[in-house]
User: Fold these one by one.
Assistant:
Number 1:
Amino acid sequence: MVERIGAVSQDEPAAGAAERDERPPFMQRLLDNPFLLLFIGVTVPTVLYLIWGILEIAQIPLSPS
């Protein structure tokens, strides 16, 4: 029996087509998008510091008048 190198069986094209039709997982799509990562990297700290600042200002006691 002679085995050819690089020979493709009848099952492989169908399996390859099915693999190409699958969407990548959510985390892979998220990490592959640099602009989304930039947006998240700027927005999350900004929102957290804003909330932290509001909480700090709310904790300042009122002066007696």
Number 2:
Amino acid sequence: MTPAELERLVRAAFPDAEVVIEDLAGDGDHYRLTITSEAFRGKSRIEQHRMVYAALGPHMGGTLHALALVTRVPHRTAGNGSRS
């Protein structure tokens, strides 16, 4: 699986995502994937990871052998209505 294919799958499920892909072994099978998306807000880390695995579908364990996964929620901006 190429990084472009991996990013396409992630963006199909999380259109707002900031995606960072690192090829850990140089073989196209082992990646570190960091996804920042509002879709993860309010979800546990396990729920977030399950959402990503669902987006990757049958590629997990097939064309994608190993995935180090980091999921994040975007930081809120200063204009979010909070008071200082």
Number 3:
Amino acid sequence: MTAEHPYLQTFRGSFSGVLRWPQLDALWQQVLTTPQEGWYVYAVGEEPPTQTLTGDALGKVIRELDELLHREHDEDYCGIVYTDSMTNPAYIKVFDPNNLGSTCGSSGNPPLPGWILSKMQPINLPAAMPQPGNRRRWWHNLFNHAH
């Protein structure tokens, strides 16, 4: 899997942060009122889904995610959800409030989102993302010294 994969290109694309809870409510409403194309709901680290969700199934996931974010990110701002568009979303990254690290990118290795909702079928994101350089060097050195 290369960086040229469309899902990975989109993942690394331009996103806007959802800063306020009312903005998140409006984003969820956009997702739920989108024509019945369906959304892939991917819990990063699990097997990527092959089927989309629509209607009640999608609504249940969004309600549960929203409740989790409000309960575990006890702030008066949101700031842990990012979307490619507030008015016509097709790709939404939701960071796990218990695994934030540095989502703003100031870290050289920001954490992966906890969940991604997308109209594009996901790939195995952890497998597609390169390991930090020091880990790659360590791994290569391990095998070079073993031979």
